[in-house]
Amino acid sequence: MNRREGKTPSQRQLRVGEELRHALAWLLERGDFHDQELTSNPVTVTEVRIGPDLRNATVYITPLGGGDASEVLTALNRARPFLRRQIASRIRLKFVPNIHFESDPSFDHAYRIERILLSPEVARDTARDANGKDDGGEDPDGT
Description:
The protein is built from 6 helices and 3 strands; from the N terminus they run H-H-E-E-H-H-E-H-H. Helix 1 (11-30) packs across helix 4. The protein has 143 residues and is of the alpha+beta class. The longest helix has 20 residues, at 11-30. The chain has a 3-stranded mixed β-sheet with strand order 1-2-3, covered by helices on one side. It starts with 10 loop residues before the first helix and ends in a 17-residue tail after the last helix.
């Protein structure tokens, strides 16, 4: 979608993206693939961002249980023609969008934020009470 450009996606983009996400999740859950990488590594489809013309879609995935997604991404990108045909039979669209798979960075980002919030420096700052004083009774400026 156009989040990088600052535009919000239309209702149509959101609806088509969700339909694609559900269809892909169902296909990946079924596991009718000849590729061992896809059958042995379960993935979660976290989001589908579709362009304003509904011709291109970026599918964000994350491996179930975490881990490296590079091998699965390679296998999914190899299976694109098969997946597009399967999507075409499940969803009614004038054009089936070109799909591109990427790893979802949001879980890594959330983990990084959690680590920062749990660090001793931040924990010390969040331990201040509502009056702006440390737990030791001093003002923040040390007086």
